[in-house]
Structures are given as C-alpha cells and as structure tokens.
Amino acid sequence: MNTFIIIGLVILFLVGSINLVIPTKQTRMLSDLRLKARKKGFQISSLTSKQKFVTKNIKFVCYSLKNISNLKNAHYVFKESSLTLYDPIKLKFDDNFEEIENKISNLPGSILEIIFNDSYISFLWNENLGIDELEKIEKQLKNFSI
To answer: What pTM value is reported for the model?
Structure first.
C-alpha cells in the first residue's frame, strides 16, 4: 500500500516538473514577439530601466527605438483617453506644439507612456497585443518628424 502511494507521488512530481519545462502558448507568443522586435531594431527592457516612467505596473514592458525625429526631449503619459504632456512644460510654448500634439494623438492607443530623448524613443505598452500592434507603433514612430 505504501509502495503505491510513493510511486503515485513520484509520478505526480515528474508530471509536474515536465509541465513546468514545457512553454505555454502565451510564453511562446511573447518570445516570438520579442525575437521579431529585436530583428526590427527595438530594445526591450523591464521597468527597472533607467527611464523615468510614471506608470509602475509590471505588466507593461518598455520598448525603445532609435530616435530619428526632431523631438529630443518630451514625456507623454496616457491620462483619461489620450496621451498628455507630462514633461517638459516648456514644450507647450514651442512653435510646433500643435503639430507635435497632432502627431502624438495619431499614435496607437496601446501606448501608455512615451519618452523622447536624444538617442531613443522609449514607450510602455502591453505586449499581449501582438506583433501587428507593434508594427503599427513602429510605422507611426518612424514617420514622426516635425
């Protein structure tokens, strides 16, 4: 009797261990997405990166792309239903502010926060939306010139 219990526990342990090793559909999708994103030139990091994002939710991931736009210092945060300027406030007094706001409003709604600096454009988004959404974001950011 004890032998059957021990054998049963060993089998359950082995089955549980094997299930941990086999990747889930979600994990495979995310690894494929990240591989394709790297091939397109994106850098992927967690929220522990040096960027100063306001959103601290760990379910969102920071992707960065080389900044080829003229906008070199801006930080937009998703509030209510659109991205709004967070920093620097002096950008509101720029001659091109309306054009910048127009281009920012055309970005996909999946971007929760975006930071423009001298070398990179970093943004937070939900990776579960897939490669199609990332391609939309990439297309908009590569055409983001003022």
So the answer is: 0.79
pLDDT per residue as tens digits for the range 93-109: 888 888 888 888 888 88
CA torsion 56→57→61→66, rounded to 10°?
A: -30
Distances in whole angstroms, Cα of residue 47 to Cα of each of 51, 52, 70, 121, 142? 8, 9, 26, 15, 23
Tokens representing 137 are 């974001």
Q: Name the DSSP class of 42.
A: -
Is the CB of residue 114 less than 8 Å from the CB of residue 55?
no
Strand partners, 132: none
3-state helix, strand, coil in the chain (%, to 5): 45, 25, 35
Kindly give, in sequence order, each residue whose CB lies less than 8 Å from that of residue 95, ignoring residues fewer than 6 positions away. Answer: none
Question: Domain limits of the chain?
Answer: 41-142
Cα 145 to Cα 52, 68, 71, 96, 104, distances in angstroms: 23, 8, 8, 11, 11
